[in-house]
Give the backbone structure.
Amino acid sequence: MAEFVQDYAALRWSVVAAFLVTSAIVTLRLARPVRGHVDSESDAAHLVMCLIMLVMLIFPTEASPHAVRGVLIAMTVAFGALLVSRIVEWRAARGAVPAGQIFAIGYHALAAAAMLYAMSGHSATGHAGPPPLAAYALAALFVADGLTVLCLRGGGWHRLAHPVGAVGSAAVVPHVVMDLGMAYMLVAAALG
């Protein structure tokens, strides 16, 4: 992945800029919560994902793959445990816990697992990344989700995951950047 990231510097720094802007948006949303804002867990998860992706993009060869894998394993386990906790709360409260929290945390658990998969280093084709077909399929899934959210401007399942905010709210930007950033990283890993 490091070779692909370094070979396409303009694309790399554009993605870095997108993640920096997204980190600022999410940090502002966390620092100044809007009345009725219920997706702070999702915002915090977006921030954590942005930071790990920034490290992998800014320092592609310096970042230890073992350290990054360790962080991704921890994130996957933490998001998975939080997801199970939210599902148990939702079932016990018979829907009193917003379903959006489950969708948002589930999305981040999937994203962390996909990134861990991209960093797995195992391949049937003999190169250092994941099998290309699987990585491209996951990338296509993230692109489709990002385009759907962008076209619906926060409608559909995204409204469930981020129930507060009008059409075009700031919650759409981090989600779309995460989707497209995940696709970029999966393609880079497949080509790397």
Summary: Residues 106 and 184 are 20 Å apart (CA to CA). The chain is about 75% helix and 0% strand.
